Amino acid sequence: MSLRQIHIFEAVARHRSYTRAAEELHLTQPAVFTQVKHLEDSVGFPLLERAGRQIQLTETGREVLATSREMLDAIGRLDMRLADMQGLKRGRLRVAMVTTAEYRVPRLLAEFCVRYPGIDALLTVTNREKLLARLADNEDDLVILGAPPKEVDVVATHIADNPLVVVARNDHPLAGKKAIPLARIVEESFILRESGSGTRLATETYFAKQGFSLKVRMELGSTEAIKQAIAGGLGVAVLSHHTLVLEGENGLLQPLDVKGFPLWRKWYVAYRRGKHLSAVAAAFIEHLLADHDCRKSLPNTLFPFP
Ligand code: PGA
């Protein structure tokens, strides 16, 4: 058994796909297939089996996967210790973040990488539900999310505020109106994020608590797609206010002054309690905290709420 085979097998098992594992590892699909076959030959039992179009782990496969993960984890920890010994000259940083943070965190990560050129960073952008699964599987050094999870014991640090606002097109009849009642806004058609999104969860929870349900016109799995749908006149949506910042004041969209909004959500950087935090990960947390006051960076004109 080689470490390389174990590494490849872990990726195939995680993705349940040879193709996606090959993409992740920058290998060809036949090369991935062959390495898994070699591993199966040395173990003496099949590790994966096909159930229709799906790949499933056999019982032996599950055993081998659990040990593979322990081994890869131990190697990762060794790697981090070695990197720690060298300070921040070399190292790896794996960060996963919820999509709303993509208007802010990639810039901070880029600055960090410019400052420490020897650090390889891998940033995964996904929704809250998928990020929590990654956290449970210990796939990242750090995660950035909208509220610390109840399911996993984490050390979470508040890094910035994330106000959620009702966004509409500039020429919407409610644009510019003050203190729009909830009973009025729920007459509008809403575009929602996919289920599993923290923004969606916060939105639905808020309206339900106030005794309202939303008229959902469409569900879209991307904030940018939702913005395009609003611009196309399909309806309104609750989005992070940060999603409007890049457009500035001349954008097509604006937040509506709806009673009870913004919903104050926060962003946290978190890691599982007990996890060894590498020097690189600790330095990145410091870097995020140095940029703490998110609200100040929002132009006032775009932020008409107290
Ligand atoms: P989302 O997360 O990208 O899943 O909507 C944002 C959040 O949890 O605040």
Compact overview of the structure:
With 306 residues, this protein is an alpha/beta fold. The protein contains 10 helices and 11 strands.
Number of contiguous helices: 10
The N- to C-terminal Cα distance equals 62 Å
- Mean residue pLDDT: 89
**Strand residue content:** 15-25%
Sheet/helix structural class: alpha/beta
Taking the sheet with the most strands, its summary is: 7 strands, mixed
Tell the overall outline. globular
Query: Helical amount among residues, as a percent range?
Result: 25-40%
Show unreliable segments: 293-306
Question: What is the H-and-E element order?
Answer: HHHEEHEHEHEEHEHEHEEEH
Commentary on this structure:
- With 306 residues, the chain is an alpha/beta fold.
- The protein has ten helices and eleven strands.
- It has helices spanning 3-15, 18-25, 29-43, 59-85, 105-115, 128-136, 182-185, 198-209, 223-231, 279-290; strands spanning 48-51, 54-57, 91-98, 119-126, 142-145, 154-169, 189-193, 215-220, 237-240, 253-256, 263-272.
- The strands form three sheets. Strands 3, 4, 5, 6, 9, 10 and 11 form a seven-stranded mixed β-sheet that branches.
- Helix 1 (3-15) packs across helix 2.
- It is globular, with a radius of gyration of 22 Å.
- The N and C termini lie far apart (62 Å).
- The model is unreliable at 293-306 (pLDDT under 50).
- The chain binds 2-phosphoglycolic acid.
